[in-house]
User: What shape does this take?
Amino acid sequence: MKKIAFYDTKPYDKIHFDRLNEQYGYEIIYFEGKLNARTAVLAHGMDAVVAFVNDNIDAAAVDALCRHGIGLLAMRSAGYNNVDIGAAKGRLKLVRVPDYSPYAIAEHTMALLLTLVRKIHKAYNRTREYNFLLNGLMGFDLHGKTIGVVGTGKIGRVFIDICKGFGMNVLAYDPYPSRDDVTYTDLETLCSRADIISLHCPLTKDTYHIINKENLALMKKGVYLINTSRGALIDSDALIDAIKQGIIGGAGLDVYEEESDFFYEDHSETIIQDDVLRLLVTMPNVLVTSHQAFLTNEALGQIAATTFENMDAYFNGKPLKNEIL
Ligand code: NAI
Assistant: This one.
């Protein structure tokens, strides 16, 4: 029986993996802790490792996995910026789930935007205290506004369709344009013309801090910024300055540069030492969710299905169609 080490386990992961494993019959050992150079030893004697977005799979962790005989690292995520690809190359097979539900992420993006624009987060708190005043809850119509979409891959494309349904004008930036029905432009023009900007590109060395002091300065006063991709696409210090200056009217953040120290854990009884995160969370026009855009029943079911297919292909010597090269 093949043994699988499963890191950063939450109850919602187990539901789908346990159900599907009835067909495959692997022995899955679930670890609550994250994978890193120290915890890799737990995978000793196993046949494959399943990891997620906030595991720290740097060169030292890859070395440790290889030392403990792991041949397959199966990411149960689309993004893999937390893996040292150079260190893994040629030493272990690396697979991912490139496409599970772009709808889950695109719909969460719109949920963040609508919540901020219509101040639903404030209204929710008010009415729970029987405060039925509307003062301070004025929003604006999305209809007729210009949305700037950075990255028009699977998720960006679904989000564009949602925005079109709202009657918004779409401007896009992507070095590899893929849609004929969207106006593409350069990033600077997008930043200066959009009323709302949403990020849907991967985190790479080219996109690190793609939203920075320089292009925040180009943006319209009061622009809304939504990030459901990866935290390090935005320079958080520059974002805070732009919020203080009123350039950013609202920010919806499902991801944060230093999220791996906090997200997916309960820190409600501790003093958060990260001043930037603490400040962002307290700002009335900032909404932070903890990397939950993927968290739908459909997405989790598909993540499990593809991860099992990836492992089955590896164990049976079939082509690895989702290999990260
Ligand atoms: P995709 O690979 O289908 O599309 C990415 C697009 O970004 C491509 O069209 C590509 O050409 C474009 N791109 C690459 N470099 C760029 C640059 N410098 N500037 C602008 N665009 C650039 O990926 P998909 O499935 O749409 O996912 C996008 C990202 O969403 C993932 O990389 C991941 O970081 C994030 N994600 C977040 C989740 C969450 O739960 N918050 C869940 C799943 C994905």
Q: What stands out?
A: The pocket of NAI is lined by residues 78-79, 102, 105, 150-156, 173-176, 200-203, 206-207, 228-230, 254-255, 291, 293-294 (CB under 6 Å). The chain has two domains: 3-100+296-315, 102-288.
